[in-house]
Amino acid sequence: MRIRLYQKTEDNLFYFQFLTKDDQLILDSQGYQSKDGRNNGVNSVKTNAAIAERYETHSEGGQYYFILKAANQQEIARSPMFASEEEMADAMNLLYTKAGGKDTPPAKTTGNDKTYAGKKGDDNYRPLAVYEQHTKNVENGFGTFADDDGHYYFAYNVGGKTILLSESYTSASGRNNGVESVTKNMVIADRYVRKVHPNGKHYFNLLAGNKQEIATSRWFDSEAEMEAAIASLMSGGTGATYVPREGYKADVPIDGPEETKDVPKEKKPRKKRAKSAKPKGEKVILKEGNYLFNDVTYHTMRSANEKYYFSFKSPEGKTVLLSANVRGYNTEEEVDAAVQRVMEFAPHEVNYEGKTTKNGKYYFYLNDRDGNRVAKSFFFNTTDEMQSAIGLFVGDLTVGDPTPAPKKEAKVDDYLPCGDYEGGVWFHTFFRGDREEYFFAFNSPDGKTYLRSEGYTTEKARDNGIESVKKNAPIEARWTTGTAMNDKYHYYALKAGNHQEIARSCYYSSKEEMEEAFSWVRGEQSILGEGAQYVD
Fold it and tell me: What is the pLDDT of residue 23?
């Protein structure tokens, strides 16, 4: 088995892949901030791949994949999509055997001894002309077909133009499940990953909730043309756009001081030095443009050190957002891709991370869905200033005639029924495939659920929610009680310092029941209660 180590220029993160000797992909990693982190991930695969219990299987849109986890149940890497459960089992067992597994393999064998024959390369798409030829009579919507290679495909057309392309499927039913998955995910903004091809063309991939690619787009001559196609797909061809939240002040949690090289440092007065006779390079503005709304503008530039950067400015012309890559990007294409990542993730408040400096200033990071930093802010004197700056970037996708979205106070309850949170003791985590969201619960040793979370789009965000519970539970002022459904039920809830609700109890028919549960979760029998100390 071969291990491929590489770094992507589009995000400057480090990755690894496990491949067969014939270069068939078996395992793919997420991005790491450093080579050392990536190499530790490789070693973790070598250790855990030989343990059958570390494999977790899933299905999505008629296809199958598996996740390899560490002993602490954290994901290390995951497989590509397989057309059948048998192919997935073959790949799992091959990895298990190559890693030195000796006991019962993690999956049932298919009765053959052939080497896993997965897909090679980065994709399994046909040329655009194939999709256009087979779906030329489809004006709007999906067109499906079987090609002369014996495989099944689909495309999605808008106004007679092919926009989305599928990979190959070995059966019509698998292909139809893929259509259903695209239908479900194409209306969700953060399922789109914008990219720039080496030839300068723009395109995007559509992902399922498990982050697996389910379709790709044609190439577009401009970013605007690509964004129009995405908006059209999200609205079913009726047109869609982002609109700002008028005068919106965000409600992003703020962490304490962080000691890291990435923390912005305030400029200190420097002593004047004698001017050098050596001519300095010039700072060159390359591109200027507009954010999605609120008269926010941006520009990209090449600095004197031949590195590339971007910045976003408020309507008043004050710089608000800067490149997270403090060392700069190596090429203009890389900085352009970074700007597009801001466009992709900035409208969603869940992607922001507030911070505090040791001297009482405030700043924030903009992260992608995996928690990787995309951009960082300047310093602010107050939390209100910081939250208002974030509010400039936060918006809502609307279809048709745009109207201002409701403020955050109008948030809809997104909790699952209490019975759905049953599971492990203390902090129990799980993924709901039907909602494609991550949840946690706080359960007692006798199986009762005392706290439940709303859904998170990523595991990292969910885990941050758990840490916020641990941090805020000892503070009496962070707890509150209330009623729901026209005062029919009683509940208690835990909030963060910014008054954002982190978790809520089950609903109780009487106030007495609620108060009894409330007393338990804050008492000494609970690891979150008074006098107790949380131990991992």
Answer: 65
